[in-house]
Amino acid sequence: MTIKLTELPEAPPQSIRAHLETIRKACNAIENMLPPQVHFDPHYAPLSAVESREELDEALKAGGTIELGSNNFGDLVLRNAKNLKLKAVQDSVPQFRSIHLRNCSMVWLDGLTIGGGAQKAVFIQDCDGVEIAHCDIRDSLHGLSMRGSSKVFVKRCQFFANRGDNLKIGPDCEDVLIESNDFETLDDPANSDNVHQDHIQVFTRGATKPTKRVTIRSNNLFQRQGATQGIFIRNADEKRGMLDDLLVEDNLVVNAHKNGIVAAGVSNSVVRKNTVVWSGEDVKRGEPEIRVTGWDNVVTMNMAFFVDADGSTDCVMLSGGHYEKAFRDPHSPLETRKPSDYAQKQGGLLDRDGRLIGARR
Asked: Got the DSSP string for 186-229?
């Protein structure tokens, strides 16, 4: 057990404050740019919910807010759509096998179940302004993939029973927020599809410009069977600035793979207040670590088995045998273990006079 602690103000440094302010402005932009009829208004509702694919196709011609009833609407491809919101009507479960967005702007998906045998359940390409909230993204090879897009926000969604990657951020993306989502076990631990399995992946292969201002925060990543990578970020070009101004903050990663959080070749980025722990699965891939390489990065107040980053501060490194001294209930049954089981124990190894190391749960 190694504990490395130095004094650091609880308030984020100026670089983090500037990043957060940029992301806040980007998050507000999608709502500010939507016309009034697309904003959520409790007094507004269509005359009736859309119940069939034929009704949906007709409603899409008008755009605006479309409320959906419980039905399976199949595969949906939207090209050049603007100012559109697809929303589950109260107590309904609208399902899509896949939703692909191309060259769209100001599109909002809320409360949908997406997936069921597709190659990509959700695919976002060359879009500007997409919000996906309260959706279940499941039972596909890949859950959600994006490339060449800006102002993409994924919030309070559940990802589960996908086989490849739960979420992929491809090249040429800007102003992306992945916040408060639950990423559950990737199926097919034997990897019969022969794909690179990650809960969250950010990559630059094929990039024509930098990917920048990406925030991954307050997510729960649980691998309850086998071992897959947690958050894996890689600059394939190995050129400074191709992955720039990233914030990875307040995430809980429960896994049995050495690559808990990896950010390779990033610049002007911050990795802070994350908790990366071993699930207890004996799959011989090592206890999860945090590793960061690149230029002018801040790595601070994280907890993992090992933290490898130049100039890291206030990081606590613990093996699984010390979890009882750090967390509330870290050895509850893995199949029912909850994020709150990894709340820091008062007076424990992650509590420094009330200032907590790692993700708050």
From this structure: -S-TT-TT----EEEEEE-TT-SS-EEEEEEES-EEE--SS--E
- The pTM for the full model equals 0.89
Pairing label, strands 315-317, 2-4: antiparallel
Is the Cβ–Cβ distance between 273 and 250 less than 8 Å? Answer: yes
Mean pLDDT over 98-104 rounds to: 98
Contacts of residue 123, defined as CB under 8 A and 6 or more positions apart, other chains included, come to 98, 99, 100, 101, 144, 145, 146
CA nearest 177: which of 29, 33, 23, 39?
Answer: 23
Centre a 10 Å sphere on the Cβ of residue 310 and count the other Cβ atoms it contains.
Answer: 11
The model's pLDDT over 177-223, given as tens digits with 9 standing for 90+, comes to 999 999 999 886 555 556 678 999 999 999 999 999 999 999 999 99
Provide mean pLDDT across the span 17-31: 60
Cα separation, 144 vs 156, in Å, equals 14
Which residue is associated with the tokens 């990366």? 276
pLDDT-above-70 percentage for the chain: 84
The 10s digit of each residue's pLDDT in 238-276 is: 899 999 999 999 999 999 999 999 999 999 999 999 999
State the CB neighbour count (10 A cutoff) for residue 318. Answer: 26
Give me 104's structure tokens. Answer: 């769209």
**Residue 232 CA to its chain's centroid (Å):** 11
pLDDT for residue 237: 83
Classify residue 334 by its DSSP letter: G
d(CA 33, CA 139): 33
Report the alpha-carbon distance of residue 14 to residue 345 in Å, rounded. 29
Query: Which of 355, 359, 361, 360 is closest to 6 using CA atoms?
Result: 355
SS3 at position 356: strand
Query: What pLDDT digit, counting tens, does each position of 324-361 carry?
Result: 999 999 999 999 999 999 999 999 999 998 899 999 99
> Which CATH class name applies to 2-319?
mainly beta
**H or E stretch at 113:** strand 113-115
Of 52, 44, 4, whose CA–CA distance to 317 is shortest? 4
